[in-house]
Amino acid sequence: YMTLLCVVAMCRAVPINELFERASQHSDKLHSLSTTLTQELDSHFPPIGRVIMPRPAMCHTSSLQTPIDKDQALQVSESDLMSLARSLLQAWSDPLVVLSSSASTLPHPAQSTIFNKIQEMQQYSKSLKDGLDVLSSKMGSPAQAITSLPYRGGTNLGHDKITKLINFNFLLSCLRRDSHKIDSFLKVLRCRAAKMQPEMC
């Protein structure tokens, strides 16, 4: 759907502010799914897991310098915001595959629901990526720049139940954090495309 809209936009049939609106809707859904999944996991997360789970600074995307709040994001250029959003989205291509593979055998009562939502997240992520690729091409080369943030966590999240749950939860928490950033950046871009006042974004 997103890809179709972008193809139409290339023919100048869809205003760019409407495309940003669609992209924002996709990013909002992506973040909403990651938040719901985190809550699902927390409902059956072992207490020891909260103690030994890696800190956010260990996320594979933590080296990317990003605005810490909306006020800072409003000071960043459109091209740089697009580049940041695309870099974060690209960085989750491989980890989402790992999450999907691991969810199929996750030792959790809501395993089936978790697996289905991960699949849904992969679809939204791909659709959003396709849309941002076209949007960035309309914004010039700075917006097309992508910072490489390779995932080196491996495909096996653990052999025992506790380790697998902890690593799965950690990776998902990183995704939730990054999906929130992507959503925030795209909302700022949507506001600018619609020429809204900063306080309304």
What does this structure look like?
There is one protein chain. The chain is an all-alpha fold. The protein has one domain (16-44, 65-198): Up-down Bundle (Growth Hormone, Chain: A). The chain has 9 helices and no strands. The protein has helices at residues 2-10, 16-42, 47-52, 70-73, 78-91, 93-103, 111-137, 141-144, 161-193. The chain is elongated, with a radius of gyration of 17 Å. The two termini are 25 Å apart. Belongs to the somatotropin/prolactin family. Keywords: Disulfide bond, Hormone, Secreted, Signal. This is Prolactin.
How would you summarize the topology of this molecule?
Layout: H1 2-10, H2 16-42, H3 47-52, H4 70-73, H5 78-91, H6 93-103, H7 111-137, H8 141-144, H9 161-193
Helix pairs in contact: 1-2, 1-7, 2-7, 2-9, 5-7, 5-9, 6-7, 6-9
InterPro entries: 4_helix_cytokine-like_core, Somatotropin/Prolactin, Somatotropin_CS
GO cellular component, one term: extracellular space
Main location: secreted
